[in-house]
TrEMBL record:
Natural source organism: Microcystis aeruginosa PCC 9809
Protein name: Uncharacterized protein
Length: 180
C-alpha cells in the first residue's frame, strides 16, 4: 500500500569500537527499584527513593560496549514535538516502530527490519547491555519495568537478538548503509 509508507529523514551517528570499552552508564538504574513479584520481595535492601537508583558522579564503571559498530539515530524535530489539544493533553505525531535498514557494499544490497520498541515480557531479558524501561503497572505485584532491546526481524520472520552480538558486525561491517 503506497499511501501507508512514511519516509523519514533521520540523523545517524555510528561509533566504531575495535575492542570492548567502558562508557558512561545510564543516569538511573531502574532494575534495582524494589518491588514484589507475587512470590517474594525483589531488591528489599534498596530504599524506594531516587537517590538509590541514580548514577553517582564519577563512579560510572559498569557499562561496557562490546567491539563493533554502535548506532544511534534521532528523529527529525517535527516528530519529537507534541501539540496540546483542547483537553490540555499533549499529542505527539505517530512515528514508525519498524525501520528498514539497507546496507550497500560493492554494489550489493542486504536489508533488515529493526523493531525499535521491543520490550521483553516480565522476568525476561536481563542481560549485559539491556536497558530497564519504566512501565505503568495497575497494582504493586509486578515488575515496574521491562528490559528494552533492539531486535532485528530477519527475512524468514524469526527474531534475532542483535544487541552487541556478532550479527551487528555482519549487518554493518562498513559505513555503506542506509536507514529508511
Amino acid at each position: 500500500m503506497v499511501n501507508s509508507i512514511l519516509m523519514i529523514p533521520i540523523h545517524l551517528d555510528a561509533l566504531y569500537l575495535k575492542r570492548e570499552r567502558l562508557v558512561v552508564e545510564a543516569m538511573a538504574d531502574l532494575s534495582i527499584i524494589p518491588y514484589f513479584n507475587r512470590k517474594r520481595d525483589v531488591n528489599p535492601n534498596i530504599a524506594h527513593i531516587s537517590e538509590e537508583i541514580v548514577s553517582q558522579p564519577f563512579q560510572n564503571q559498569n557499562l561496557y560496549l562490546k567491539a563493533g559498530i554502535h548506532l544511534h539515530w534521532a528523529l527529525p524535530d517535527a516528530l519529537t514535538k507534541g501539540i496540546q489539544d483542547s483537553d490540555k493533553k499533549t499529542v505527539f505525531p505517530s512515528v514508525p516502530n519498524r525501520w528498514l535498514v539497507t546496507r550497500t557494499l560493492n554494489g550489493e544490497k542486504r536489508q533488515w527490519v529493526v523493531e525499535s520498541d521491543y520490550l521483553y515480557r516480565e522476568g525476561e531479558g536481563e542481560q549485559l547491555g539491556s536497558i530497564a524501561y519504566p512501565i505503568e503497572i495497575k497494582n504493586g505485584n509486578h515488575q515496574p519495568f521491562r528490559y528494552w532491546l533492539f531486535w532485528f526481524l530477519c527475512g524468514n520472520g524469526v527474531y534475532t537478538d542483535s544487541f552487541f552480538s556478532k550479527i551487528v558486525l555482519k549487518v554493518f561491517p562498513s559505513k555503506h548503509f542506509t536507514i529508511l
